[in-house]
Amino acid sequence: MNGRRWLRNQWDRTVAVAATLVGGLAILFGWLGASDAKLTTEQLPYLASGAVFGLFALGIGATLWLSADLRDEWRKLEEINQGLQADRDRGR
Amino acid sequence: MNRTAPGPWTADHVVRFAVGNAVGFVLIAAGWWQLADLGIVRDQLAWFVVGLAGLGVAGVTNGIWLLRGQRAVTAARQQMVDGLRARREAAAPVATNGSGYVAAPATARYHRSDCALVSGRAVEAAGRARHEAAGRRPCEACRP
Prior knowledge:
- The complex is a heterodimer.
- Chain A is about 90% helix and about 0% strand.
- Chain A has three helices and no strands.
- In chain A, helix 1 (about 5-10) packs across helix 2 (about 10-35) and helix 2 packs antiparallel against helix 3 (about 40-90).
- Chain B is mainly α.
- Chain B is built from three helices and four strands.
- Chain B has helices at about 10-35, 40-90, 130-135, and strands at about 100-105, 110, 125, 135-140.
- Chain B has a two-stranded antiparallel sheet with strand order 1-3.
- Chain B is rod-shaped, with a radius of gyration of 29 Å.
């Protein structure tokens, strides 16, 4: 499977990794900005954008990754259930 | 694996997930946008709390999303267990001619005659020693 096809097939994991990277960078830049600011009023905007938005993005990333695992498990179970149903329909 | 099949969520769940996270994002952005222009900490903190509220909305939305997905997977797993149990109960035991255990040709495990994993399959019956001499090992499910 080529890379582009894999990315399209695994879009949820791709977005999860991207969101996690964005979240990590936001926290890093927020920390860098806040550490350079001297006044609390200058630091709070970095806290609001870097820390809060970074946690938001990390949350999206974690949720999408766990969603992809759940989706995979659900699909496997659906395939098994369809096989069992087909067996029942054949009277086995 | 077929990843084009739908997942454990309905379209309604997807919409709620998207809306919840969008609302969370808007609250975070609005909180940051407003407090960035203020010069008094007390005023900034009020908008900072708005941003935290947005983070909370997104967190609760994501938690509900995952719980719904987990619930659907649990239901599908229970359906599979029920299906396997019904299949095992419905399947007539394979005739063993008194030889004890059965195995499908060219397989690596031998089974009890009533094992669900061989129900409906063409099997040959033989004693344990003969199966083991053929390189087969006991089934982990029925443990003959």
